[in-house]
Design a protein that fits this description.
By secondary structure, the chain is an alpha/beta fold. The protein has a single domain (3-234), classed as NAD(P)-binding Rossmann-like Domain (Rossmann fold), CATH 3.40.50.720. It has nine helices and seven strands. Strands 3-2-1-4-5-6-7 form a seven-stranded parallel beta sheet, sandwiched between helices. Strand 2 (27-32), helix 2 (37-48) and strand 3 (53-57) form a beta-alpha-beta unit. The radius of gyration is 17 Å and the shape is globular. The termini are far apart.
Length: 239
């Protein structure tokens, strides 16, 4: 049984990924930014159906706090599956974007990637098997009005994914990113009504969190051992 950490595991997509990985037989560590709350509920729900799960809480943007939390997790053994799903958006047109808005998005999405992935990478390499999947966004591929900070962070994660894949490839560790389009979550529900979705998504609907989770489930499986350094879009033919 492999241990899998899903950051932002209490969100819509994160929760679906946790459920998929637990159903596939992994011990899932459900991350939330605060103790208790949804992350603990998800872990309890998984344990209630005899799946392996636990909850952890730390702020991925806080390097010291993240290092302390990960050291405790690693005391029980390496994490061989990492899904970097934690992220936020704080939208504004660029001329009116504050430094705080820029920093908040970068700190969680980009610094959070480093703060979590770097401490877990060496223990993973020692096992000569690992899967790192970062959840990005179609905005990182195409850009989006009012989201210069968000698109910049996601685009940087694409570059980091490709570079890290090159570094880890010889040790059996794959590194990929998944770039969802409009997915049926609370976050997208606030931004897109049904008419807008039908207009901009060729398939005429939002994706389901479970569809993203299915792609992640494949990427962390043995069947995906030769897929690395890729940005895989799941967006209903938007791009």
């Amino acid at each position: 049984m492999k241990r899998a950490l899903v950051t932002g595991g209490s969100g819509g997509i994160g929760a679906a990924i946790c459920r998929r990985l637990a159903a596939d037989g992994h011990h899932v560590i459900v991350h939330g930014s605060r103790p208790g709350g949804l992350a603990e509920e998800i872990a309890q729900d998984l344990r209630a159906v005899h799946l392996q799960a636990e909850a952890v809480a730390f702020d991925v943007a806080d390097r010291a706090a993240t290092a302390t939390a990960l050291a405790a997790i690693l005391a029980a053994g390496p994490v061989q599956i990492l899904v970097n799903n934690a992220g936020v958006h704080d939208d504004a047109v660029f001329p009116g974007m504050t430094g705080a808005q820029w920093d908040r998005v970068m700190n969680v999405s980009l610094d959070g990637f480093y703060n979590v992935t770097q401490p877990l990478s060496l223990p993973m390499l020692r096992t000569r098997w690992g899967r790192i999947v970062t959840i990005s966004s179609v905005a990182g591929l195409t850009g989006n009005r009012g989201q210069v900070n968000y698109a910049a962070a996601k685009g940087a994660l694409h570059a980091a994914t490709k570079s890290l894949a090159l570094e880890l490839a010889s040790r059996g560790v794959t590194v990929n990113a998944v770039a969802p389009g409009i997915i049926d979550t609370a976050m997208s529900g606030e931004a897109f009504d049904e008419a807008t979705i039908k207009r901009i998504v060729p398939m005429g609907r939002a994706g389901r969190p479970e569809e993203v989770a299915d792609l992640v489930g494949f990427l962390v499986s043995d069947q995906a051992a030769y897929i690395s350094g890729q940005i895989l879009s799941i967006n209903g033919a938007m791009v």
